[in-house]
Specification:
Elements: E1 5-6, H1 16-25, H2 44-61, E2 67-72, H3 75-87, E3 93-98, H4 101-111, E4 115-121, E5 145-147, E6 150-151, E7 156-157, E8 169-172, E9 189-193, E10 204-209, H5 226-231, H6 241-256, H7 259-279, E11 284-285, E12 297-302, H8 308-317, E13 320-321, E14 332-335, H9 342-359
Parallel strand pairs: 1-13, 3-4, 3-5, 5-8, 8-9
Antiparallel strand pairs: 2-10, 6-7, 9-10, 11-12, 12-14
Helix pairs in contact: 1-6, 2-6, 3-4, 7-9
The chain binds 4'-deoxy-4'-aminopyridoxal-5'-phosphate (PMP).
Residues 10, 75-77, 102, 148, 152, 172, 174-175, 193 line the site of 4'-deoxy-4'-aminopyridoxal-5'-phosphate (PMP).
Length: 360
């Protein structure tokens, strides 16, 4: 059976090699006579799997020793609430940079639990750019500064790390983690849902500086409190074992393929290829300011939206799937995470050129 090029925003494509390994190990993981799904999370086999995944992730992102890595549940959406519960008091201010749908949602949730405020936003541009740092209204006493390095729906990405002074910087890296090197020491807390660049849905990664652990307010549910989770090695309850195992396979695949530096080069090249095709045509367009364009999610519209249905149909027939844009913006969106090979983007670009020649 032929695999398609899957441009889904998430759950997203996984590397074929990872799926092949999982398939081969599915019924009998390394001679233990059962699948990973059937192993106790307290067994020495699973503890080995869990440790390997953490070690590999630490190596990939060069995570400093004074940071804890957690493998949690509840998605990035769960972290929208967990962050204020852990880092702010109800009366404290927290700053939010709002650059699209996901940062808006993070802010709305935080407002329920602390004095979350907009420190900068790009609403006026229709969320097609990053607001200029000189215009940010940062509060020196804020509990933290939150931002969304990559807006998955709008396709807007920060190609720099915001300067937050002594205020801990918190980043929702759901759709950009592991796509390029980052300096973890610049962040107080990083979180990400797994279902884009890490593995299957159901797993949420949190990377947190030690000094921020143990500050949760009174009444924080234990499942949302980082301190008992750190204490329990992310096993306060039964963790999503299979997703954790799959994440470990993806991390190993990244290490075997040159790590995040190599990934960054490939991702840059993939993005340049696709934006180049869009910009050089009079038929396709992308509204995002050039210096804020996402390497991971590339939205684009056709000159005639009447052709959207035909585009999607013919793309699917050509083995290019899940290109429909988010309902809030319409048009198309190609999500080109780590597991999308350069070849997949090249095939898409060829298809786009052919489509334009036929109907443009
Ligand atoms: N933040 C970002 C940037 C996302 O892309 C998504 C999911 N698309 C979320 C948060 C929500 O993630 P989850 O479904 O894991 O809660």
């Amino acid at each position: 059976m032929a695999r398609v090029f899957n441009f889904s925003a998430g759950p997203a494509a996984l590397p074929l090699e990872v799926l092949e390994t999982a398939k081969q190990e599915l019924t009998d993981w390394q001679g233990c006579g059962m699948s990973v799904m059937e192993l106790s999370h307290r067994s020495k086999e699973f503890l080995g799997i869990a440790e390997h995944a953490e070690r590999a992730l630490r190596q990939l992102l060069d995570v400093p020793d004074d940071y804890r890595v957690l493998f949690l549940q509840g998605g990035a959406t769960g972290q929208f609430g967990a962050v204020p519960f852990n880092l702010a008091d109800a009366a404290q201010t927290a700053d939010y940079l709002v650059t699209g749908s996901w940062s808006k949602k993070a802010l709305a949730e935080a407002k329920r639990f602390c004095r979350a405020k907009v420190a900068g936003d790009s609403q006026e541009s229709g969320f097609t750019e990053i607001p200029d740092p000189s215009e940010w209204d940062l509060d020196e006493d804020a509990a933290y500064l939150h931002y969304t390095p990559n807006e998955t729906i709008g396709g807007v990405e920060f190609h720099f790390v915001p300067e937050s002074g002594d205020v801990p910087l918190v980043a929702d890296m759901s759709s950009t983690i592991l796509s390029r090197p980052i300096d973890v020491s610049r962040f107080g807390l990083i979180y990400a849902g797994a279902q884009k660049n890490i593995g299957p849905a159901g797993l949420t990664i949190v990377i947190i500086r030690d000094e921020l652990v143990g500050k949760a307010r009174e009444g924080t549910p234990r499942m949302m409190d980082y301190a008992p989770m750190v204490e329990a090695g992310s096993m306060l309850n039964t963790p999503p074992t299979f997703a954790w195992y799959m994440a470990g396979l993806v991390f190993q695949w990244l290490l075997d393929n040159g790590g995040v530096s190599a990934m960054g080069e490939t991702n840059r090249a993939k993005a340049e290829l696709l934006y180049g095709a869009i910009d050089s045509s009079g038929f396709y367009s992308n509204p995002v300011r050039r210096d804020c364009r996402s390497w991971m999610n590339v939205p684009f519209t056709l000159a005639d939206p009447e052709l959207d249905g035909r585009f999607l149909e013919e793309a699917k027939a050509a083995g290019l799937t899940n290109l429909k844009g988010h309902r809030s913006v319409g048009g198309m969106r190609a999500s080109i995470y780590n597991a999308m090979p350069r070849e997949g983007v090249a095939v898409l670009v060829d298809f786009m050129k052919g489509f334009e020649a036929r109907y443009g």
